[in-house]
Amino acid sequence: MAAFAYGVGYEVNAYTVREAEVPVLSPGADPIRLLHISDLHLLPQQRRRQEWVRGLADLRPDLVVNTGDSMASAHSIPAIMRALEPLLDLPGAFVPGNNDYYEPKRKNPIRYFLPKRRILHPPTLPWPELARAMGRGGWADVTNQRATVKVGDALVAFAGTDDPYLSRDNYAAIAGPADPDTVVRIAAIHAPEPRLMKRFAADGYDLLLAGHTHGGQVRIPFGPAIVTNCGMDRRRARGLHPWDDHMSFNVSAGIGTNPYLPIRFACRPEASLLTLVPRR
């Protein structure tokens, strides 16, 4: 009972910034401070979360990437845009997650351990409206698309897919070697599915960013996640990891939770500040 009270009453709002250095840039390139946010699951009344996200601009990132699940309600868009407002002044890119299409529902947590049975009806959330709003703010929509984003004097190549958890990804639309004439090649997906990560690595991407797992949300203290809700193994449910000799990947533990499961244990809500530096 004490652990439950701690998870619901304190840790779910104990926001933190996880920092790491990632040697992925071309030789001689200037460092790039990349802010990776994911899984806001924002409701209009969650003012504390909105203010914390707005405050991330104080970290002075050069680039922002949002890997989805920003919404938790059909009425969330004004709150999301208010939270992101200071960050939209910066170069950025985004992809959607499953909860940008479908409103969260109350469910038994045991279902996360059972085989997935998804009966999909028409989306219940206005993702196209949110995508247009972020696009008007200046961020690149890389949903089954490629884009080149200018960061200072450098060019960054992006590619992303629609949400793989809902099987909306279409890698064929972006397949092929990543742009070699950029300082770094970044992939963005919502759920870190190994079947997609293999393809991005084979096409020469240097860094892949994902969310979805919530880092497990409830973890064994000093141990792995209990469940990831995707194909990623439990020990790599959050944080920065090597995929192979060339590509690294970062899984964000996310900022929010499903509104019906507002608990975290041994897994604080987070944003990631990754300092990209030249390869050694």
Characterise this structure.
With 280 residues, this protein is an alpha/beta fold. The protein has one domain: 4-Layer Sandwich (Purple Acid Phosphatase, chain A, domain 2). Helices cover 16% and strands 23% of the residues. It has 5 helices and 12 strands. It has helices spanning 2-9, 47-55, 77-84, 127-136, 194-202; strands at 16-25, 32-37, 63-66, 92-94, 140-141, 145-151, 154-160, 184-188, 207-210, 239-242, 248-251, 270-278. It has a 6-stranded mixed β-sheet with strand order 1-12-2-3-4-5, covered by helices on one side. A 6-stranded mixed β-sheet has the order 6-7-8-9-11-10, with no helix packed on it. It starts with a helix and ends with a strand.
What are its keywords?
Purple Acid Phosphatase, chain A, domain 2; 5 helices; six-stranded mixed β-sheet; alpha/beta; 12 strands; about 15% helix; about 280 residues
Mean pLDDT: 93
Shape, principal axes of CA atoms: globular
What structural class do the secondary elements suggest?
Answer: alpha/beta
End-to-end Cα distance, whole Å, is 48 Å
Strand content: 15-25%
So, CATH architecture?
4-Layer Sandwich
CATH class: Alpha Beta
- The Cα radius of gyration reads 17 Å
How many individual domains? 1
Total E-strand runs: 12
Largest sheet: number of strands, sense, barrel closure: 6 strands, mixed
Task: Give the low-pLDDT segments.
Answer: none
The H/E string reads HEEHEHEHEEEEHEEEE
Quote the CATH topology.
Answer: Purple Acid Phosphatase, chain A, domain 2
Helix content: 10-25%
